[in-house]
Amino acid sequence: MAHEYTSEQLETAKVQFCKRCDFMLSVAQLHQLPEADRNEIAFAGRSNVGKSSLINAMFNQKKLAKTSSTPGRTQQLNFFDFDGKLYLVDLPGYGYAKAPDKIVKQWQMVLKDYLRGRPNLRRVFLLIDSRHGLKKEDLEMMKLLDESAVVYQIILTKIDKISAAALRTIQEKVALELKNHAAAMNEMIATSSEKKIGLEFCQAAVCELIEQ
């Protein structure tokens, strides 16, 4: 279920993640996208899945990505420049948003067009709350990624909130579902931003995409 990284790969990733990662811009319309001049990765997930917390924990920067107790706060595509080598994109949370339907639909259209048309997008890290497993909205996102031919990898979040047995059950269920999705990677990563669990594997996965 989990990719095996060598100690050298993990150490290289650790060093790389000491480099700067800076917020660039928020994109509400596709004409605002930066030039596709380097590889790009994106983080997606249901609202309140812990996207911003994971990004902050990976880079050990408390305020890199904005966190909020209010679901649906991330309403645009937030771009970050990682050491001049990689674009990192924090995508709008889906499944819940405190916004008018018209605005929510507009976000969804921008997101779909971005996924289908961004030539340098190498991988989407799809975050799933380990306490709840795959929800309807997650399956819809997986279908969209399949249709867009965008490779994606599952990251389970908040594993410190469940038992080891419950985690194994969730991993098995997700692994079974992944077999039905053409663009999905088999390997998933189990994480806890709060307890700093699994972050080194996320870092190594990102660094693989810098090197490509």
Explain what this protein looks like in three dimensions.
It is built from six helices and seven strands. The protein has 212 residues and is of the alpha/beta class. It is globular, with a radius of gyration of 16 Å. The two termini are 23 Å apart. The protein has a single domain (7-211), classed as Rossmann fold.
Order of helices and strands: HEEHEEHEHEHEH
Q: Which strand order spans the largest sheet, edge to edge or round the barrel?
A: 1-3-4-2-5-6-7
Strand content: 15-25%
CATH class: Alpha Beta
Q: What number of structural domains do the residues give?
A: 1
Structural class: alpha/beta
So how many helices? 6
Shape: globular
* CATH superfamily placement: P-loop containing nucleotide triphosphate hydrolases
Give the helix level as a range of percent.
25-40%
Radius of gyration: 16 Å
Q: What's the N-to-C terminus distance?
A: 23 Å
Low-confidence stretches: 68-73
CATH architectural label = 3-Layer(aba) Sandwich
CATH topology: Rossmann fold
**For the report, how would you describe the main beta sheet?**
7 strands, mixed
Number of separate strands: 7
Average pLDDT metric? 91
